[in-house]
Amino acid sequence: MAGRRVLTILGHPSGDSFCAAAEAAYAEAAGAAGAEVTRLRLGEMAFDPILRHGYRKRQDLEPDLERARAAILAAEHVVFVYPIWWGSVPALLKGFLDRSFLPGFAFAYRGDGPSLPDKLLKGRSGRLIVTLDTPGWFNWLAYGAPGHRMMTRTVLKFCGISPVARSTFAPVRNSTPAARAAFLTRLAAAGRRDALSGR
Questions:
Q1: At 9, which CATH number?
Q2: What is the annotated signal peptide range for this record (predicted)?
Q3: Which residue range is the domain that position 157 belongs to?
Q4: How many helices (H) and strands (E) does the chain have?
Q5: Could you tell me which residues come within 8 angstroms of residue 189 by beta carbon, excluding any fewer than 6 positions away?
Q6: Is residue 198 pLDDT above 70, yes or no?
């Protein structure tokens, strides 16, 4: 039986960042284990990251966003790779979410009254691969890990993507080559496991 359909989304704008290396380690290992892997690099996509009219008026999707949404719908496992900047995700990734995870695609409310939304992306699992300069324990203790909580709870699980695993490397600043290599090795192992999950 074939491995799962896995989508990786690199949310760091630079293709030569440590996040890019992390995405590659995961994606290549998942592919080698039999997954059908699709890879998106937001820094190479052409789209306006600003939701110009909020939800009041339709903003046409650029071809790259159309392709990205098709890839999300086709995926069984969606992986976001990004750094934590100022406690949250990079502006490029936030813009991608604003423009692509829209009502009618990622979630839908019933009627005009207050209600919990339908989760339109149910049936998919997720993984967050996250880097930050703040030590991981301090990020949790002092700040409550807002970037992790935002992506896990108010984006992915809100839209039905669950369960969501996390792989975090911190702090990147002053990390040794050996520590980085060990993290990439762990990501490759995670990619292999995720490729075979659900068999």
A1: 3.40.50.360
A2: none
A3: 5-196
A4: 7, 7
A5: 29
A6: no
